[in-house]
Amino acid sequence: MEVLIVDTPEEAAAFAASAVLDGLRAYGTGNPVLGLATGSSPLGLYAELAAAAQRGEVDFSAARGFALDEYVGLDDTHEQSYRQTLIREVCNVIGLPESGLNVPNGNGETVAQIAEQAAAYDEAIKAAGGVDVQILGIGANGHLGFNEPASSLRSRTRIKRLASQTREDNARFFDGLDQVPTHCVTQGLGTVQEAGRLVLIATGSHKAEAIAAAVEGPLSASCPGSVLQLHPDAVVVLDEAAASRLK
Ligand code: F6R
């Protein structure tokens, strides 16, 4: 694992974007295939990718994106669904066409149907030739995607219950905690690890403990982020605050 520590969140975004572009050159076999995280952490990185596209260093106009996760039970036109969030915060920013955006389907008549759709999502990633570079954030509790602590390190895309901490963290996007879905469909930790390169960005002291556990702690389902230790090409980009608990 390569750990880069820089002074500010802005520098972290720039370094993480370079790591993504290098990864696309190293693992891409045609048009880029990106694994996409939502959340605050990668917003600066997406802005840097947009700037790189404007400079002509990369072209996302025929790229495909695979979201890490989606809520269960939110219509995909709901403004807080991750499909709509990624259209706003990624597609419209970096120029990735909506037709190239894939998001797990969190809607279905039955749990079994959602589970089938989740398995089909892993197949769709394979059919696209795999993800070249997976962009990641990390939860304050160490979650990766919506793989909460105690998730299997080899898990595949599936339905998960959201931890209460995660629902509370995300309540700011909804009209109250009771509006936050209780379940999600998330790429599994095994799915995530199949990407060519992983680029995780974390900034701020509220991520320091999770980063210390993920980078220097034991490989453990208690900290899903620790699976990065297993990956042959994982890049972790931190500002000083997020790195403050590293030894
Ligand atoms: C988002 C995701 C989550 C976030 C994590 C950090 O698709 O899968 O794992 O990366 O919750 O969120 P932020 O960046 O908002 O602190």
Automatic annotation (TrEMBL):
Q: Which NCBIfam families match?
A: PRK00443.1-4
Task: Print the keywords alphabetically.
Answer: Carbohydrate metabolism, Hydrolase
What PANTHER family does this protein map onto? GLUCOSAMINE-6-PHOSPHATE ISOMERASE (PTHR11280)
Give one GO term, molecular function aspect.
Answer: glucosamine-6-phosphate deaminase activity
Q: Which organism is it from?
A: Paeniglutamicibacter kerguelensis
Q: What is this protein called?
A: Glucosamine-6-phosphate deaminase
Q: Which InterPro entries match?
A: Glc/Gal-6P_isomerase (IPR006148), Glucosamine6P_isomerase (IPR004547), Glucosamine6P_isomerase_CS (IPR018321), NagB/RpiA_transferase-like (IPR037171)
**Database matches in CDD domains:** GlcN6P_deaminase (cd01399)
**What would be one Pfam family of this protein?**
Glucosamine_iso
